[in-house]
Amino acid sequence: MADHTYIFHPVKVVELETPYNECIVLFDLRREECTSPSLFPEGSIYSDRFHLRANKLYLCAECKDQENGFKFFGLHMGVERIESVKAKFKFTGPLASRYLSNPDLSFTRTFTKEELYGWSNVFNISWSKFVEDDSPYFIDGLLHLQFMVSIIE
Predict the structure, then answer these.
(1) Which InterPro entries match (predicted)?
(2) How many domains is the chain partitioned into structurally?
(3) Tell me: the pLDDT tens digits for 6-25?
């Protein structure tokens, strides 16, 4: 498989029927991406922007450096919008239910400017353990991240 060069990482979005104002976002990362200089030792991978109602949203996976010198997998949601918007973001799917440090990893936040909000240490393990060859987080070399995103009016 050939390597792809992209500014923003593709995501799959399933928008649920109105009036729910919700969508499911699938954000897959290859192990090679998680060990590449774009993410490790101190980088970020941004998703393509996706739309929910009139809002432009995106995800950001990061290698976060903590004060103790350890690096962790961080995950954030961002909003590109000038007006205020209240959004709920929930990590879902098999990976979330099996391996999260907090099985109900979610937040509700009112975004008033373009910003990122999320978690610095999603899996509560060091980066080196996270990307090991026998890491349970990767299935066939892929990290399958799934989220439910809602706009609250």
Answers:
(1) POB1-like
(2) 1
(3) 568 899 999 887 667 899 99
